UniProtKB/TrEMBL annotation:
Ranges of residues in domain YrdC-like: 36-229
Keywords: ATP-binding, Cytoplasm, Nucleotide-binding, Nucleotidyltransferase, Transferase, tRNA processing
Protein name: Threonylcarbamoyl-AMP synthase
Function: Required for the formation of a threonylcarbamoyl group on adenosine at position 37 (t(6)A37) in tRNAs that read codons beginning with adenine.
Compartment list: Cytoplasm
EC number(s) stated in the UniProt entry for this protein: 2.7.7.87
Family to which this protein belongs: Belongs to the SUA5 family.
Reactions accelerated catalytically: L-threonine + hydrogencarbonate + ATP = L-threonylcarbamoyladenylate + diphosphate + H2O
One Pfam family recorded for the sequence: Sua5_C
Species assigned in the record: Lodderomyces beijingensis
Length: 378
């Protein structure tokens, strides 16, 4: 593969609170000049080049390019060194854009999605549609699957960028493949500076974990990836058609096969080794025991503890971060704190408190069990 062209990556500030979408209006009103100018620069880049750019969504930052253009999509894979067999989500700014640009003329959205779309869009829910030939969508987006995944992001910057360019954007998370997803523009800069021309900086992401991916084309429907919309909400809003939704054992596109510590395919992983502690009370004994049994030299290496609901401070660790206690707070802070202790505090070992798998807990534990090289369960 040819190496990416060198870029001097520009960070462009945008103010999400100055972008407003009125109901049924395709284009937003933008009340801040700098925000409007920078959004137009970004839209122009997407329309006139095949470069991928970084932008905020309510879940995590995305790395976007036109879903209709092979070269743009290839730029995405190249910038983040993503394996080509993992399909991308296409982002739209409105239902009419979805119909106009992606779906075949006259295609009716399956009824199983109606309540979900009404309630969760714009928002962190991704749904699958059949990919019918001849499709306008690049085959690099779908990785040759017979379906394609779509969501309408809620973040005003993401929506405005898609609306102004009138391009459905293929966008994975804007991290280097295997790293934790970025929830701040500086995380995108850390991973992709020099590899893409620009990043729109719209502040921190409110949700903090990626969208929930569901397949309503299968019967019964399947939850492919837990995320910003919980399984409980999905069932409650979806009603009868979603009450028997099956939770996929493995996240879609995830090819991890070996559970042996140190051998699995890496995902959401900082440089430091992550040890996930499940059901370990206040954590003190579990941390002490791990250190003792593994001969960890606390004088020689730096250790972090990410605690949430039950863990207390441990005298054996050097850096402690509190993820918060509500599911929403833990989700929002998870990737940010993993990056902070790894990239700034430069720790070698990270202990993380596990949470129960209800509500936001399912997505949190899904990400943590992938980030972890070892899981200690009591
Ligand atoms: O919140 C999000 O979804 C973020 C932001 C940027 O929108 N995007 C994101 O994209 O997380 P990515 O590429 O990191 O994850 C896409 C997920 C993968 O698990 C992939 O396997 C699944 O969606 N996916 C995409 N297309 C699919 C398809 N046709 N069938 C099954 N799964 C699909
Ligand atoms: Mg990702």
């Amino acid at each position: 593969m040819s190496s990416s062209p060198p870029f001097s990556t520009t960070l462009l500030k945008v103010k999400p609170e100055c972008i407003h979408f009125a109901k049924d209006q395709p284009l937003p009103t933008i009340t801040d000049e700098e925000t409007e100018r920078n959004l137009k620069i970004a839209a122009h880049e997407l329309l006139t080049t095949t470069n991928a750019i970084g932008f905020p969504t309510e879940t995590v930052y995305g790395l976007g390019g036109s879903a209709l253009c092979d070269e743009s999509v290839k730029s995405i894979y190249r910038a983040k060194s993503r394996p080509a067999d993992n399909p991308l989500i296409t982002h739209v700014s409105s239902i009419s854009q979805l119909q106009r640009k992606l779906l075949p003329a006259g295609y009716e959205i399956p009824t199983i999605y109606h309540k979900l779309i009404d309630h969760f869009w714009p928002g962190p829910l991704t749904i699958l549609f059949p990919n019918v030939a001849p499709s306008p969508i690049s085959s690099y987006v779908t990785a040759n699957q017979d379906t394609f995944a779509v969501r309408m992001p809620q973040h005003p910057v993401a929506r405005a960028l898609i609306a102004l360019s009138d391009l459905p954007l293929a966008a994975p998370s804007a991290n280097s493949s295997t790293k934790p997803s970025p929830t701040m523009a500086q995380h995108v800069m850390h991973d992709l500076s020099g590899k893409i021309p620009l990043v729109l900086d719209g502040g921190s992401c409110a949700v903090g974990v990626e969208s929930t991916v569901v397949d309503g084309l299968s019967s019964p429907p399947v939850l492919l990836r837990p995320g910003g919309v919980s399984l409980e909400e999905l069932k409650r809003v979806g009603g009868d058609e979603w009450k028997d939704v099956v939770v996929a054992k493995r996240t879609a596109g995830d090819d991890e096969k070996v559970k042996t510590p140190g051998m699995k395919y890496k995902h959401y992983s900082p440089k430091a080794k992550v040890v996930l502690l499940i059901n370990c009370g206040d954590g003190n004994e579990a941390v002490a025991e791990y250190i003792r049994e593994n001969g960890v030299d606390v004088e020689a290496i730096r250790i972090a503890l990410l605690k949430s609901r039950k863990f207390t401070e441990s005298p054996l660790v050097h850096v402690t971060r509190d993820l918060g206690s509500s599911g929403a707070a833990i989700a929002r802070n998870l990737f940010k704190c993993l990056r902070e202790v790894d990239e700034q505090e430069k720790v070698d070992l990270i202990f993380v408190e596990g949470v129960d798998e209800s509500d936001e807990g399912l997505a949190i534990m899904n990400r943590l069990s992938k980030a972890a090289m070892e899981v200690i369960q009591r």
